[in-house]
Amino acid sequence: MDRIRFRTDRRPISRLAWVAAISLVCGLGCLGGARLSAHGEAADEPFLKVLTTAFHDVSISPTEVQIGQPVTVTGTVRVLKTWPYTMPAPERAYLTAVVPGPVFAMKERTVNGESAPHSIFIERDGIYQFRMVLIARRPGRWHVHPGLAVEGTGTLIGPGEYVNVTGDAASFTFPVTLMSGETVNLDTFGGQFIWWFPFLGFLVGVVWMFYWTWWQHRTVTNLAVTIQIPLNDEGSDIGLITAKDHFWMNVLAGITVVILIAGWVYNVSPNVIRLPQQTVWLDPPKLAPEESLAEAKPLRATFDEGTGTLLLNAEVKNVSSSPITLKQYTLGMVSFVNGDEQEMAKAGPREFVGRLEVEPNTPIGPGETRAVRLRVMSKLFADERIVPTHAPQQFIAGLLRFQRAEGAQQMVLVRSNIIPTEFGQLASTP
Ligand SMILES: [Cu+2]
Predict the structure, then answer these.
(1) CB-based burial of residue 1 (10 Å sphere; 0-12 exposed, 13-18 middle, 19+ buried)?
(2) Residue 133 CA, ligand 1 centroid: distance in Å
(3) Co-location of 310 and 342 in the same domain
(4) Distance from the CA of 334 to the center of ligand 1, in angstroms?
(5) Distance from Cα 42 to the centre of ligand 1, integer Å
């Protein structure tokens, strides 16, 4: 029999590898110490943000809560007609709160006034007014966004707000009254069973693993012998796998079968009241159509990346019977407002709202067609990556909000081809 040779010579790790490893560890350490303020919303491609959906009138309040207190997220998300045909069509989606982990519990969610515990069906040009009530679950400073998780596309997120949660995480409860009249804490209900039952199966596996590697450890540590005997040969003549091993393995297999049978018996037991898991897919009711106020035709639009300035020319026609004003321009998760501080605060979380200048900024008379120029200068373009200046298609889509003096309003979709006038590196907010 040939001697089996093991290669045991040690090769020194090159000095370069050590330098690389130490640099990596130090680099990670520095990152860990720094206050990380980014939360990923800028990462999505601009076309994915602005051509798919637009979030407006988002409110997240209050922003200071104790554990167990509610935070209400309201707003409107529109699935735009400009949803790119290169992506799967928008059909089924899930309205969610985008937060870092299970720091809130969803208590209530309605879409267009109807309860929507699960997914909803969506379509191009659909308008979805949402309301979500979240209960604070873990203390911390959390950035809370509404998001529309679209099947096949991913989660498209709206503007966010920081919410400070204080208090003791252990005091969190989520009481729910069952049909029997009993009140349970949904946060921990059934948790013991869900933990311990699978743990039984895990224990059997652990015993099996230690048996073959630690206590008896013939097959693993005697590898030199094991690999020389044919496959399916127990090596009983050299004492590799013995009758005792067979006995204990049968015991482990027996315990596994007993656990399975116990699970099945429990599952069909008539003493346990159970309901199949529910699926509620809602086709949200349509909202009353908006009154037709205006038509808008995009003209030349330019973007200066150096200063973060977007200039949008459009031809606007008032098709209503009274004067209208152009009040807002919403792009994906950001809104630019032609108005005072109060109107800007109403438009959404302050970090995602900027100022819009409209020239001429006078009401447009009934039947009048006018060329208007929209000018937005904002760091949001760089911070949130809204305008695609480095993409094969330089289109943006946004909603122009026209408003009548007595309050009626309409959001009109405008898709513009952007001509870059300067490429530059607009500094991001520190
Ligand atoms: Cu965020």
Answers:
(1) exposed
(2) 18
(3) yes
(4) 13
(5) 9
Residue 343 covered by a domain: yes
Same domain, 120 and 161: yes
Q: Is residue 351 part of a domain?
A: yes
> 102 lies in which domain range?
46-182
Nearest Cα to 64, choosing from 166, 169, 194? 166
pLDDT in tens, 47-100: 888 999 999 999 999 999 999 999 999 999 999 999 999 899 999 999 999 999
**Ligand 1 centre distance from Cα of residue 132 (Å):** 17
**Do the Cβ atoms of 385 and 376 come closer than 8 Å?**
no
**CATH code for the domain of 369:** 2.60.40.1580
Any domain includes 9:
no
Question: From the CA of 144, how far away is ligand 1's center (Å)?
Answer: 6
Say whether both 255 and 374 belong to one domain.
no
Residues 292-303: tens digit of each pLDDT:
999 999 999 999
Tell me the per-residue pLDDT of 104-134, one tens digit each, with 9 for 90 and over: 999 999 999 999 999 999 999 999 999 999 9
Give the per-residue pLDDT at 265.
92
Same domain, 314 and 352: yes
Cα gap 46→105, rounded to integer Å: 30
Distance between CA atoms of residues 16 and 233, nearest Å: 47
- The pTM is what? 0.80
Asked if residue 21 is part of any domain, the answer here is: no
Q: What is the pLDDT of residue 233?
A: 82
